[in-house]
Amino acid sequence: MTQRIFTSYEEFWPYYVAMHSRAATRWIHLTGTLTGLALSTYGLVSGRRRFLAALPVIGYGTAWPAHFLIEGNNPATFGHPAWSLRGDARMIRMMLAGRDRELAEIAAAWRAEHS
Questions:
Q1: Which of 24, 60, 75, 104 is the most exposed place for a label (fewest CB within 10 A)?
Q2: Residue 81 forms part of a structural domain
Q3: DSSP for 77-105?
Q4: Per-residue pLDDT of the chain (115 residues; tens, 9 = 90+)
Q5: pTM score, two decimals?
Q6: Alpha helices (H) along the chain
Q7: 47 in a domain, yes or no?
Q8: What is the number of structural domains in the chain?
Q9: 48 lies in a domain?
Q10: Which domain holds residue 49?
């Protein structure tokens, strides 16, 4: 896919979800982010500073291959890093709230409109 230009986060959000159209990609993101967050928190609490790098290393280290291998696309982070980080947080909150199906519907709607 070519690089897209967005004028707002709300315009970007459905695109971001569409780049995570497969449940496996979303669950890998969730697992990597929460694992990295847990290890970074451990590092902060225990004073073991080397663990602070776990969030970006494990988070991105699991998410990016999922884009290449499962979705067949480039991570939205490459073109929109701040909005992608915000999108990750929103997507994970929705998944933890049991709204993964809603994410699949947003992705399908965006893809149908932009195919």
A1: 24
A2: yes
A3: GGT-HHHHHHHHHHHHHHHHTT-HHHHHH
A4: 456 889 999 999 999 999 999 999 999 999 999 999 999 999 999 999 999 999 999 999 999 999 999 999 998 888 899 999 999 999 999 999 999 999 999 999 999 999 8
A5: 0.89
A6: 9-18, 23-46, 54-66, 81-96, 100-113
A7: yes
A8: 1
A9: yes
A10: 12-113
